[in-house]
Amino acid sequence: MSKRAYIFYLLVLIIGFGIAYVSGIRFGTNNNVNKHTENKSINTNSLTDENSEVEGYWIIAVDNKLNVYKKDKKTIMAETDIDISDFSLKEKNMLQNGVYYENAEELFKYLESNTS
């Protein structure tokens, strides 16, 4: 092959890698950061009952996972994947007995602090 052919293939290779690099940067930074932070947010509207006058939620550990119950401690509102095996002994005992939250906002602050 001639020198012109080698130079041509080398230029095509360099331009191809340049296009792939720029496309990768654009694809990798195109709103992916916002998607990950949006997935961690919790929708507070799903746990509020419009007919009830007073909110109230219990967090109780069942089989080392946290469950959210309504004020009556019988109706399950949500089953979480939060494992309490890494929590302190004091917090484990507290969660096995149940922790009461007056409103959904306090509840979500607690859940978000333990899912990060």
UniProtKB/TrEMBL annotation:
Transmembrane segment boundaries: 6-25
Keyword Transmembrane helix in annotation: yes
A Pfam family the protein falls into: BofC_C
Location of the Bypass of forespore C C-terminal domain: 55-112
Source taxon at top rank: Bacteria
Keyword Transmembrane helix: yes
Keyword field: Membrane, Transmembrane, Transmembrane helix
Name of this chain's protein: Bypass of forespore C C-terminal domain-containing protein
Organism: Eubacterium ventriosum
